[in-house]
Model the fold of this input.
Amino acid sequence: MGTFFSRYKYFLSFVIAGLFLFGIAYHAKADMYDCAGPYPAGQLYDASIADIGTNPTPKSNQFACAYGMSMGSTSIDPIAVPPRLYRCEETIAQELFCRHYLNPTTDYYTCSYRGRGAYIGSTPYNRYIWDNCVYSLVPPTVSFSAAPSTINLGDSATLTWSSANAISCTASGGWSGGKAVSGSEVVTPTTTTTYTLACTGASTTTSPPVTVTVIIPDTIRPSNPTGLSAAAVSSSQINLTWTPSTDNVAVVGYRVERCMGVACGGTDFAWIANAGAIASFSNFGLNPSTSYTYRVRAYDAVGLESVQYSNAATDVTQVAVDSTQPTPAPILTYSSASSAQVDLSWTASNDPESGISGYRVYRASLLPFASMPFLMATVTGTTYSDTVTLTPGVTFRYYVLAVNGQGLSTQSNNLDILIPPPPDIMPPTFIFTSPAALLPVDTTSTTLAGTTDEPATCRYSTTSGPYSSMTLFSSDLGAPGTNHSQLLTGLTNGASYIYYVKCRDTAPLPNTNITDVVHMFQVDSPGPDLAAPVIVSSSPASAPPLPASTTSVTMSVTTNENADCRYSTNSATPFLTMTDNFLGSGTGHTVVLPVSSGTSYLYYVRCQDTPAGNPMTSSYPLSFSVAFPTNAMPIAVINVVPTTGTAPLTVSASGAGSTDTDGVIIEYRWSWGDFSPDTFGASASHTYTTNGTHIVSLRVRDNQGGFDVKSRTIVVSPIAPEPIPEPLPSICTAACATDADCAPNVCGPAKFCVAQGTGLGPERFNGYFSRTDGTLSQPGEPLPAIFPAGTTALQMSVVTDVNANCQYSEVSGTPYGASAMRTFSQTNGAAHQVTLTGLGSTTAVTRTYYIRCKDNTSGIINDVDYIISATLNAPTVVSGPNPYTCLINSNFVRNNIPYVFDICIPK
Done:
């Protein structure tokens, strides 16, 4: 890059000086950007996921903008992008002007939609994305037509055209010379001719060609067709063939005429079809044993016919033969079925050619055993009764064949009939399945249930009696079944119970049990209460925090039995010495406590049951917190002096006037706009050695992660103008395309030659941190990822564009392979991960990591750091069990019990 600027410094000085004047003339706001683009819509950035703008739909001509983007740089994009030749400025109305460095007054885009946080695939990038950009150099549009487009020889056509954004037009094809930007012209071509018009403005646009077709009249008739012959091929078809006619252009068809009968004169023929240009025709749908006579006549494209018809040709269709099965197929049904007789009937079939000779009736058995079908009878009517004794419970299949005089048949549908079994005369059998004979202590309800060997309706009672006097099982209210149940309630300890059941089946003549099915059971008697109460639920929950506006909270616990409950801030305090009581001596216990925003609370609860008096011997922890108020963003105030001068120009910058209404500013970050490293501190100074317009920006961040950015423009002017060399074609193009352009070295990812084994190396992007339990994940660049207090371990990940081995260090500039570098635990591919431990601290801390990688294929190693960072917020310190002070971590759970203490330090 240094060689590039030294070689073209005079040229760039001129361009930047021009842009400085352009910036004074057009600058509407202090936000100015170097921009990459334009990109066709949807091919790179996706602005549909943007946090600014009212219409997120991507449109066209996208620009990716950021402070200090350099030409050809890949540092802000995941892939190589076109050279950045446009300088963009934002107006107060959030409109963007992207003007070319060399031709700002004529070559520019006007963009009206702004988005930030666009995506490439599923990866977000912190870029400003502008689209729907309208280009200033509008190409001309041309409308061109001919009327009429088809003429006869000797006639004329009119060419008409108009254009927009054009300054001149030129004709070609069937005409030539310069033309006005709009007009008309009469042409008289002698053959079919194509005309073309091109109009020039900001560029040249050529219209679609216009063709005028010239038609030459046809006056010659086709010759007479000859050699017509007719051949009957069936009882309904005769095929015709003849010798084709000729024409000066082409014969397009033949008119076929027909006469039916043995005596045919000239007026007896009638037209039946146009046969097309093929000298043959098949006439279908004729009557059997009938004589037909034919003649044909040729015609051309303009409708001229041959002078005479062809010769007449006659043939007689063949005698008809019955080859059609009877129709329709019989539809077989039955009216009654028993083991003694099955009565069948069916619909009649028809055969107009040879008639129906009779119907054949067949029968076969299917289930539970099968047999081959056999012919039972042949009848002429449409009914039949099968009086052979049949086996009950067996399915028999019947079908009928309709037969015509030629012996052809059509089968009816298959009719499957199950012969019904003998009548049911046995009542259902009921077997109890619950409850058990002895139920546990304190059982207050149980299910009386059983099954039957067939669908039935069952009733129960506590005394023996007739079926009609008993109570219906609740499960039998819908429909009879084989599973029967009824919920019994009001059971008491030590009591015995007896139930009687009768059932009725679903037979046509229902069968009912005569004798009862009896079941007895008992609820066990309780022993002495020796168990302490158990807390089964509590509130409020440990997460999420209560709203910041909360000033009091109702803390409550629920016990499994009646009890008295108390609470303390010390986990070791016994129940009897606790002084703070819950209200309520049943199973619900509550107390109202005052709370403050931004504070975490931990209480220990113990209960003693009543009246047994068994106290809990270990405390139940109950923790919750109240959220901080919504963070008000800090306000950055930037002062820079001087803002103009000659190189070297040293400027002093101050952000001391920046404010934060609800916290403190913890970071001041200065970006100088000349590719130099950022500087930190409330005040800073910087020396510019390069002529041009630079943007210095101040970014302030408060203790709750809010930030604000302000900027100023610095103009560094040359001491004296120097001659401007002619720009070289390669100024805006990459220095190499493949490794062959750089032999013996290699072509780097930025398309500049680098030494073998060193240079930019694998590209690194998508740096992320996440908790090891996966509950929080966020990117660590360009801003640090923020994690809550108590976080002691993180998973760090980064992605490379090629398979690589990656290392990291907390010291910038550490070479790859040095002893201070540590290797990712998961690497040697495109995804790299490592778990970082021991990160906890009693104060807020930002961890910054510097990553370098080695390409597995080329061996190229990064010579610059990829930087990602994470901030671990300061924990809130509360008083814990003596003698320790503990740090709050509300995400710690052990044995399904939430704890809030993570790091405990002796007092």
